[in-house]
Write a structure and sequence with these properties.
It contains 5 helices and 8 strands, in the order H-H-H-H-H-E-E-E-E-E-E-E-E. It is elongated. It folds into 2 domains: about 5-85, no CATH class; about 90-190, Elongation Factor Tu (Ef-tu), domain 3 (Beta Barrel), CATH 2.40.30. The strands form 2 sheets. Strands 1-6-4-3-7-8 form a 6-stranded antiparallel β-barrel. A two-stranded antiparallel ribbon has the order 2-5. It has helices spanning about 5-10, 25-35, 40-50, 55-70, 70-85; strands at about 90-95, 110, 120, 135-140, 145, 150-155, 170-175, 180-190. By secondary structure, the protein is an alpha+beta fold. Strand 7 (about 170-175) and strand 8 form a beta hairpin.
Length: about 200
């Protein structure tokens, strides 16, 4: 399939009544497709996919189109959103510790899901040590998160079932070494009831 066909098939997954934050609809995406404005059509479809309940096939089509257009960040986002359809969404307000404090980062966190820090959710091992969990981190609305900065982030746990007990308001800590690197307050936790349903 070429890019226009991939985007056209993805557009077929979007309800006519769905609207993005800017009021755009699938009709707008199709109009840009008709004028060979593929990147704009892709951006609209991604926005629409974030505005309504999607299926994995939708994100697979968009990811492949983004790959063919060499839009690596958009491709990573589509793969990220596909995983959220299957496993659920965890969003948190993350405050990094100051770079001058032990555990503080001195370089920005890349915003596109490459960082896989450890998270302390309060569980302990049989020996009484913190039982940390791994989750990749995506920074919303920013290309990266500066040292000491604050942003809403999305988390992709390596073991999603361990995160199901989290609810909005829960506080967890981020670790890259032993000292705390950041503190996050959960703002959304919505897990798939049946992870096979969306495959």
């Amino acid at each position: 399939m070429d890019v226009p066909e991939l985007l056209g098939r993805a557009a077929c997954h979007v309800p006519v009544v769905a609207a993005g934050e800017a009021g755009t609809t699938v009709a707008d995406a199709n109009e840009y497709l008709d004028h060979d404005e593929w990147e704009i059509a892709l951006d609209i479809l991604v926005e629409l996919g974030d505005a309504y309940r999607t299926e994995t096939a939708f994100w697979d089509l968009l990811a492949e189109a983004a790959r063919m257009m060499w839009l690596s960040r958009t491709e990573r986002w589509c793969h990220w959103r596909r995983a959220e359809v299957v496993h659920g969404v965890v969003r948190a307000d993350l405050q990094l510790v100051d770079p001058g404090v032990a555990g503080g980062r001195r370089t920005p966190i890349p915003g596109d899901g490459r960082l896989r820090p450890l998270w302390d959710m309060g569980a302990v091992t049989a020996a009484g040590d913190p039982d940390l969990s791994v989750a990749r981190l995506w920074v919303e609305s920013l290309p990266d998160l500066q040292p000491g900065g604050r942003a809403v982030v999305r988390l992709a746990p390596l073991s999603p079932q361990r995160w199901r007990r989290l609810v909005p308001g829960d506080v967890i800590t981020m670790h890259e070494q032993r000292p705390v690197a950041g503190t996050a307050t959960i703002v959304e936790s919505a897990f798939s009831v049946d992870e096979d349903h969306h495959l």
